[in-house]
C-alpha cells in the first residue's frame, strides 16, 4: 500500500510542474498567442515597469524586443542572469525554464517565436503483394 502511495505522490510531483510551464497558461496577463501552427508558436509579450512573471518553460526560440530595457531572468535554483535588450535586435534563446522580470522603468514588449520540433511521419505501409487478382 505504501508503494502505491509513494508512487502516486511521485507522479503528482512530476506532473504538476509539467502542466504549469506554458507561459500562456500560467501568466496570461503577460503572454498572448499571435500565431500557432505546426512549425512555430508566436507570442506577444508585454510587461509593465518592474513586473515579474511566474516560472515557465519555452522551447528554442527567437526573441525580438520591440522596446529596449533590462530583463532579469530568474532560473530554477535561485540563480539569475541580466540581459540588456535592444529594440529590433533579434536574440536566440535556448530552451529552458525561467521567470522573467522587467528591471526597467518603462514598459517592455517582445515578440517571441518558439520553434516546434517536427513530428516524424509514420512509415507508409507496404502494399499487400499477396492479393488475389
Quick take:
The chain has 133 residues and is of the alpha+beta class.
Structural class: alpha+beta
* Highest CATH level, the class of the domain at 30-115: Mainly Beta
The portion of residues forming beta strands comes to 35-45%
> Per the principal axes of the C-alpha atoms, what is the gross shape?
elongated
- What's the number of extended β-strand segments? 9
The end-to-end span amounts to 60 Å
Number of helices: 2
Tell me roughly what share of residues is in helical segments.
10-25%
Mean pLDDT: 85
Strand order of the largest sheet: 1-2-9-4-7
Main beta-sheet strand count, sense and barrel state: 5 strands, antiparallel
- CATH third-level topology of the domain at 30-115: Jelly Rolls
Structure description:
- By secondary structure, the chain is of the alpha+beta class.
- It has a domain at 30-115: Jelly Rolls (Sandwich).
- Helix content is 17%, strand content 39%.
- It has helices at 2-19, 23-26, and strands at 31-36, 40-47, 56-58, 61-65, 69-74, 80-85, 91-93, 96-102, 108-115.
- The strands form two sheets. Strands 1-2-9-4-7 form a five-stranded antiparallel β-sheet.
- Mean pLDDT is 85; it is low at 4-20.
Amino acid at each position: 500500500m505504501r508503494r502505491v502511495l509513494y508512487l502516486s505522490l511521485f507522479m503528482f510531483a512530476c506532473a504538476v510542474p509539467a502542466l504549469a510551464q506554458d507561459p500562456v497558461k500560467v501568466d496570461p496577463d503577460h503572454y498572448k498567442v499571435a500565431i500557432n501552427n505546426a512549425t512555430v508558436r508566436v507570442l506577444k509579450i508585454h510587461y509593465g515597469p518592474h513586473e515579474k512573471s511566474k516560472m515557465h518553460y519555452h522551447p528554442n526560440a527567437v526573441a525580438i524586443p520591440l522596446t529596449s530595457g533590462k530583463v532579469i531572468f530568474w532560473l530554477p535554483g535561485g540563480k539569475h542572469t541580466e540581459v540588456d535588450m535592444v529594440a529590433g535586435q533579434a536574440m536566440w534563446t535556448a530552451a529552458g525554464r525561467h521567470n522573467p522580470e522587467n528591471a526597467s522603468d518603462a514598459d517592455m514588449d517582445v515578440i517571441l517565436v518558439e520553434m516546434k520540433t517536427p513530428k516524424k511521419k509514420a512509415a507508409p505501409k507496404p502494399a499487400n503483394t499477396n492479393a488475389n487478382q
